[in-house]
Amino acid sequence: MIKLWAKTMKDHKITKQETYLAIEKYEDERFFVYLTDVCQLLDIETPVILPTHLKNFKKYRHVKFLPSDFMDAVDFDFLLIENIT
Question: What is d(CA 28, CA 55) in angstroms, rounded to the nearest whole number?
Fold first, then answer.
């Protein structure tokens, strides 16, 4: 089971948040699918995933996407995805 908490932050405040739940075992190969689903819930574009993002998510159970990780301009300081399983 996968349970992710996604939130956009601006000036140290949560501007949007969603909880994503999937009834399947977590797989690194499907991280893009999970991220895409979460971004659709938040109504934001999907950021570019780099190897360091995957490594941080596996090691620390969370990952931070900065505005530079998005193709277009965003109205928040960062997107934080946390594994809360």
Answer: 10
Please tell me the distance from the alpha carbon of residue 41 to that of residue 56, in angstroms, as a whole number: 22
Residues 6+ apart with CB under 8 A from 40: none
The pLDDT tens digits of the residues spanning 16-47 come to 999 999 999 888 899 999 999 999 999 999 99
**CB within 8 Å of 43: residues ≥ 6 apart:** 16
Q: What's the number of CA atoms in the CB half-sphere (13 Å) around residue 68?
A: 1
Q: Angle at the Cα of 76 (from 65 to 2), degrees rounded to 5?
A: 45
On whether the CB atoms of residues 24 and 1 are closer than 8 A, the answer is: yes
Q: In what order do the strands lie in the sheet with 62-65?
A: 13-22, 2-10, 78-83, 62-65
pTM, full prediction:
0.93
